[in-house]
Amino acid sequence: MASSVVNLYERDTIMSATSCASSKMLHGGLRYLENCEFRLVRESLRERDAWIRRAPHLATSLRLVMPIYRDSKRSSWMIGLGMFMYDHLAGRSLLPKAKRLSVKQLVCRDPYLRATELRGGFEYSDAQMDDQALGIWVAEQAQLAGARIQEHTKVNSLTSKGQVITDDGKTYEHDRLINVAGPWAHHLLQQSGLYSPYELDLVRGSHLILEWPCKQAYLLEAPDDRRVFFVLPWQGKTLVGTTEVRQTLEDPIRCSQVEQTYLLNAWSHYFPDIRPDVISTFAGLRPLIRSAQDPNKATREYAIYRERNLVSIFGGKWTTSLALAEKVSHSIH
C-alpha cells in the first residue's frame, strides 16, 4: 500500500500570524467553567499535560495565583468550587492540585500586590509555552514524517472535490483537503462559493510586554468589567493580557491605544506602586464559533464539517490542537 503524502499550503511563513500571538499558555480554561464547557475543559487539561510530556523543552508547568478581594465578583466559595472542579476534570494530572493561600502568604510572595481589602486567594496549576518555538518544532516533526510545507503559497479557493487553487493560478489535486485556516476558514469557503454551516466571531486578543521581572503568575479580574486577564512571566519581563474586541479580517490585527490603556489600568489596579514601561505589544485573532452576543461568553468549542473530500475546521485553541488533529484524521478515513 502506497504511503500518503501531506502537503501544507502556508500563505506567509510558518508561525507568522495567529498561532504566535497567543497568551503563551497551555491551559484547561478555568474561566470556561463559568460557561459550563466541561467537555472542553476536561480535554484541554489532559492535552495540557500531554504537551508537557511531548515537549518538556518548550512547555513547562506554571503555578498561577488568583487573589480574592472584598469587592471581587467571584466569591471565595465560587473560586474554591471552580478549583475543585478544575482538578477533578484534570484526572490523574502530573501537575499539583490547587490550594488556598492566606493574605500573609500572598503578600510574602509578592509585596507589590495590592494588599488593601485582600481576603486571601488560591493557587493552581497550568502550563506555559513558547508558542512560536513550539509550532516550529511541530512543523519540523511533520516534515520528518514526510510532510511537505509550501510557504508563501496563498490559497485563493478550494473545491469539495479536493482541489486547491493558488494565487498564481495553479490547481493542485488531493484525495482529501483540510481547511484549517483559523480566522480565515469561513472566508475561504465563502470565497470559494462553498457552503459553511458555521460562522466565526473574529475576536482580537491584545497583550502588553512590560519592563518588569514578573515575580508571580496571576489570573486577575479587570476592575472595569470583571473579565479575567493574565499577568505572566515572559522572557524575564511581564506579559499582560488579554482583551476581547470583535473585528473583521480587513481591520489591522494590532493592539489599539484603547486596549493598551485598558490593560495598563487593570495592571495598575493590582500593582499601584509599579509603573513599568511598555516594551512592546502584540495581538492575534481568535476564530470563535458565533454563539453569543458577548464575545467573553462565546463558546471556545470547535467544530468539524465535511463536504465530500473537503473537511473544514471552525474554532479551536492551541492546547487542544493535536486532539483536534486526531479527530480530523479519523473523519477523513
Describe the structure.
Helix content is 26%, strand content 30%. A hairpin with a 2-residue loop joins strand 13 (228-234) and strand 14. It contains 7 helices and 18 strands. Strands 2, 3, 4, 5, 11, 12, 13, 14, 15 and 16 form a 10-stranded mixed beta sheet that branches. Strands 7-8-9 form a 3-stranded antiparallel beta sheet. It is globular and about 65 Å long. It has helices spanning 38-54, 76-90, 103-109, 131-144, 185-191, 257-270, 321-331; strands at residues 7-9, 25-26, 59-69, 99-101, 118-129, 148-150, 155-158, 163-166, 171-173, 177-179, 200-210, 217-221, 228-234, 237-241, 245-246, 278-289, 303-307, 310-314. It has 333 residues and is α+β, with helices and mostly antiparallel strands.
From the spread of the alpha carbons, the general shape counts as globular
Radius of gyration: 21 Å
Question: Taking all residues together, what is the mean pLDDT?
Answer: 94
SS strand fraction: 25-35%
Low-pLDDT parts are none
E-strand count: 18
Main structural class? alpha+beta
| Quaternary organisation of the protein chains | single chain
Please sum up the structure shown.
This protein is α+β, with helices and mostly antiparallel strands. Helices cover 26% and strands 30% of the residues.
